[in-house]
Design the sequence.
């Protein structure tokens, strides 16, 4: 279950933006939909602990991540949210294997170029990344970058997966393949997934509950689990 009551204002000398949302949903897949600048990325950042709400409450999968009234604000690393950023945000100076191993890193040092751990092997295998594991992000295709970013998020065994426009950089054929792969993965991992998307095809494919945001406010009906998720 996801329960959010959020109030966050961003200010700069010439602009003020306020995000105010309140909803609760049992859906396993939530699709966040809305025009550019409406607050979608900010919502994921607040859930992940990369930004702090001014007030409110964030409950995900039975855990309270933030509750202003009780003074609870778990730091990002304790929230166990897997985040795949819009541009994937891979570390340019680390190869694919190191990027994936990054989530397992203890202390401040980067993983070695040949970083090894059973989980790294498992994710390289699962996403067919063995052949390109020693390449750096600028040498990877869009699909390889995306799979590397997903593996880096999932290796930490997150309790929820947050995806910011995960397919936008991919060509249509690859997009459909990755949708399928992500849906299968989510069923296997059994964690809630929150996806930002502008693409109506994602809406059809994922059959997700929809949160429609406009100018920092919920537009339309509150998110409801869709047909295949009911019962
Ligand atoms: N420091 C700031 N001061 C005022 N407004 C800000 C500040 N930082 C960001 N914003 C505004 O916050 C709003 C929400 O941004 P956000 O990145 O969440 O939008 P988005 O819906 O994800 O857009 P896109 O689909 O283009 O990625 C934007 O309108 C942006 O201009």
Sequence:
């Amino acid at each position: 279950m996801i329960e959010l009551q959020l109030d966050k204002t961003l200010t700069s000398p010439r602009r003020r933006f306020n995000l105010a949302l309140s909803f609760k949903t049992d859906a396993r897949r939530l699709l966040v939909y809305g025009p550019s600048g409406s607050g979608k990325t900010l919502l994921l950042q607040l859930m992940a602990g990369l930004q702090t709400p001014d007030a409110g409450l964030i409950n995900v999968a039975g855990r309270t991540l933030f509750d202003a009234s009780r003074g609870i604000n778990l730091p990002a690393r304790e929230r166990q949210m897997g985040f795949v950023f819009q541009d994937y945000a891979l570390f340019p100076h680390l190869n694919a294997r190191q990027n994936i191993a990054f989530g397992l890193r203890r202390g401040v040092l980067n993983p070695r170029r040949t970083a090894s751990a059973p989980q790294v092997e498992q994710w390289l295998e699962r996403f067919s990344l063995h052949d390109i594991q020693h390449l750096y992000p600028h040498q990877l295709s869009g699909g390889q970058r995306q799979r590397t970013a997903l593996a880096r998020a999932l290796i930490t065994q997150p309790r929820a997966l947050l995806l910011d426009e995960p397919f936008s950089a991919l060509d249509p054929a690859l997009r459909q393949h990755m949708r399928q792969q992500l849906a299968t993965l989510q069923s296997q991992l059994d964690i809630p997934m929150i996806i930002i998307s502008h693409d109506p095809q994602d809406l059809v494919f994922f059959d997700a509950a929809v949160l429609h945001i406009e100018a920092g406010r919920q537009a339309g009906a509150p998110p409801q689990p869709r047909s295949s998720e009911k019962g």
In short: The chain has a mean pLDDT of 89. Residues 10-12, 15-17, 34, 36-42 surround adenosine-5'-triphosphate (CB under 6 Å). The first strand starts at residue 2 and ends at 12.
